[in-house]
Amino acid sequence: MTTESNLNFEQIVSAYYQPLYRFGYSLAKNEHEAGDLAQQAFFIYAEKGDSLRDKSKVKSWLFTTLYREFLRRRRKDARIDNYEPEMLENVGGCVELKVRRTVDGNLAVEALEEVDAVYREPVSLFYLKDLSYKEIAEVLDVPIGTIMSRLSRGKAQLRDIFKRKATETSANTL
Amino acid sequence: MDREEAQKILQLCRPDNTEDRNDPLIAKAFERLHQDAELRTWLEQQQALDAEICAEFNRIEPPADLKVAILAGMRAHAFKCELLMGDVVGEGEDEEEDHHTIPFPRPASRAEHRSAFRPWMGIAAVFAIAGIALVRPTQQAPQLANSTAPASAAPAIATAGVPNMIEFLAQQISEFNASKFDQAGEQIGELQSHLASTGMPNPKNIPQPLQELETLGCVTFDYGGTKLSMICFKNRQVYHLITVDRALVDKDCTPCKGQKTKVFETKQQAFKVWSEGEQVFILTTKGTKEDLPNFI
After folding, report:
1. Percentage of chain B with pLDDT > 70?
2. DSSP state, B143?
């Protein structure tokens, strides 16, 4: 590998693996899946990133890829639910999925869980601070006007919940 | 622009972000702050709370080895790509590098991957992948925290730091459907005959309770040159028995000294690994370790 290629790729990984992991975590609420999603985003970048000609778009591209990968997995999970009963034919019975979730006590992530689903992704991307509202619109593939209104409402919800939780937490620690 | 409209726009501004403040729309709303003290106070409060929430999100720390794992994986992937494509694309790769294109990790010189050492690059890639597991000491098969049994008696349960081979199998199984069987059939005998005739790993000792179940079919996977055969059994649940040559399995996959089995959970599947003679067996099913049968 040339040093330059190495450095450039390493720089991209260094710059974005943490925010990507955090975004993955805010989506999946699971450490393992968050790590997996971040790795997968870079893997897809390794596969297709050379077709990306505008360097300034790498960040949005990675976030978009991670988000789409997350959605793809969720859709696949829904399909898998139908796979085993099909294989079992007449035998019947199915396995209840036991998703291992990580509870780490992060106030913001906990508060985000209580925000209306439609606002969660734009709000988490806003608070991760890596993307502007225009980039958030691009990543989530929704018009800027929609993002503006979702951010406005979603942030209002999150702030209220966050404040309430922060108060509860301090009350419990007293 | 009235105050309400300005507030809505100012909400788009990330705390302490000059880039946002230079955005034409946000900059226009900022202009209003000069003539509206109440709006200024409101913004300060909002930004203070936003900064607090941002700090909380930033507390989410990725695993210490994530970056190393990503880079190692990418290098291995690049090597693999070169190995697969080397001769085909080798001659056409002297095109001028586009400076707007993001550099992509790839082997340094054409001569290097045209050389007779190319197979060693593949081996290096395999070691690089295996290395990811080795540099993750905190994730290696921890004992259950609440287990009262001595370490030598209890199986190791790993819910993190799952070996690459197990991850690979989990991925294959999650994407698997009945149409992908190499051989479908309800008799274990005919599936074993098929595996034997194709030279694929054929389980020499199938646990008796599994033998009593009907089978669905068998399939083989190629994990970086290592052949794994899988036979699927059905009961009230589908079980997959994977067989692989012991010499080809990394140590992080197999039970430690004094332990009979090793258990992993990943992608909503549970895996139990044990070895007998020259073979390693992996029994897997959908769910958690509680869904694995206890007959091993």
Report:
1. 71
2. P
